[in-house]
């Protein structure tokens, strides 16, 4: 068997972040080194508690480190209660929390873990990019040991918080600028791709037959998530944005990606936070990203189901 790929998930759980963690933690192709948290879907305190609850519930024994509570330059965006609820992870009922937070700051953890790793590390940000950008700026030596940055964020077409911008990028556009221009390979799972991963009621029904702790947590999460997506956006199935990053790492053939130059708008104008993706290679600027374009939906849900089965039987 090939050596497992070492990853750090930087996230703001979030129902879809939770599923990304679930896919990564038990997959034999991946070695989850730790989870770092950042303000995004909810406040830093709430998303950090959510990450701890997920790990405790599923017996995921990795460090959880709390990161930045605000964007690195501009005021933070409002949190997203409409979709994720007051806790940021409404729906499941978790037992009393006993798993303890790692004392290291997320930025310190990222730097230490990458520098001390025998192998290169892949960073998987599924929230605003504040922690990743700060780690790069504070210790540029990590760059040579970053294999890839596989992120959920952006859109080459339309945004979801403004006509131009997607939430994760808009929430800290300056941080996104640092990441996309850091010189390491960036793979972008934008809304154009993630809106193809729609969790319809029949998917929830399918996963309800996976009689593991992972299957139960998925169903509890998605019943709430799909309800709020329908109430907020009118969609029958909520887009499962963040797990597409892990699906790509497990099996890159589950989606088509295209290499291109991506510029982050940090102008402060009406398109602030937009990922300007040069899909048609109109400029001569060097390509700095692979942008996911088309999802093999059947293969994606097979990946989800396969990994939910890896948890403890009920």
Automatic annotation (TrEMBL):
Gene3D superfamilies: Ribonucleoside hydrolase-like (3.90.245.10). Pfam families: IU_nuc_hydro (PF01156). SUPFAM superfamilies: Nucleoside hydrolase. GO terms for molecular function: hydrolase activity. Residues 7-302 form the Inosine/uridine-preferring nucleoside hydrolase domain. Keywords: Glycosidase, Hydrolase. This is Nucleoside hydrolase. The lineage of its organism: Bacteria, Bacillati, Bacillota, Clostridia, Lachnospirales.
